[in-house]
Amino acid sequence: MRFLKRIEQKEKNWKFSAADIRERQLWDQYVVAYEDMFHHTSSEWAPWFIIPADRKWFTRLCVSEIIVAMLKSLGLKYPKVSDEQLVELQKAKEELLNEKGSS
Asked: Is residue 32 part of a domain?
């Protein structure tokens, strides 16, 4: 269907190549090669995610969900502030407030 649209709609003619038809005949071999590559290169610490891309909104939703899940799995937290640092922060705050009052 996509190839027919590219032929039938003048503004899409530039997207068509006769090579697409020849390559289409190799589709099953491409699928096997892709699956083999994903199987051999995906790992627990660096997984592949295969996301359908025929609907942009769904693709973006999938990608954003994966990013959020991965970031949450990192367990990131703000650094702890020591008691000494809290004292320094309080001094800095007082100094800044005194400057503001004298301006």
From this structure: yes
Q: Which domain holds residue 9?
A: 1-41
Q: Is 18 left (phi over 0), alpha (psi -120 to 50) or beta?
A: alpha
d(CA 89, CA 83): 10
- Alpha-carbon gap, residue 65 to 62, rounded angstroms: 5
How many independent structural domains does the chain possess? 1
Which tens digits make up the pLDDT trace of 16-68? Answer: 888 888 888 999 999 999 999 999 999 988 999 999 999 999 999 999 999 99
- Say if residues 59 and 53 touch (Cβ distance below 8 Å): yes
